[in-house]
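tool_call: predict_structure(chain=1)
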Amino acid sequence: MIPRTEHQPLMSVEEFEELDRRAPELVRLEFIRGKVVVKPMPDGNHSEIVAWLQRLCMQHRPDLWLHAERGLMTEGYRKGRARADGVLVPRGAFKGHGEWSAPDGALMAVEVTSWDSDAAQRDRVDKPDGYAAAGIPVYLLIDRDNCSVVVFDQPDNGHYQHEEKLPFGATVQLPAPVDITLDTAPLKELAD
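tool_result:
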């Protein structure tokens, strides 16, 4: 048996998708950097944060829709599979798609940290790199651990070149092509 290294995935994307199809409904799987990851089920505050962001996106950009819990083909050569907490796209962008969509047309990916031990690595390192490699222009991280909002943009060569971190309560400008201003004061009540 050949030992696995960091650059060798545990399985192929096709094997992962078959595993995902056979997983029980209560288990949400992702394939991040060649590893199978179990994504935690969202708690009530997590869901409220996504709903809050959906309302704001509808108010400011009615031409777009923030899809919750959308499966995306990420990373280089679309070899990763991430279930984004939110994906901002033009209305109808996912029409006719299966469970996993190419990131074409995605303007922003959103993650809200969960209360699990892997959140720091997954949401702060692995997913930003995967979304940047997929060419998604903006990644918004709502970090409940640090009570902050982090905006990543300018994807290039598998990484976001710009990152801005602001505390809950700050006014956050989501850059082009999103062009939405967020008053994050309501997040203070949803940090737990």
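agent: The chain has one domain: 42-190. Proceeding to next step.
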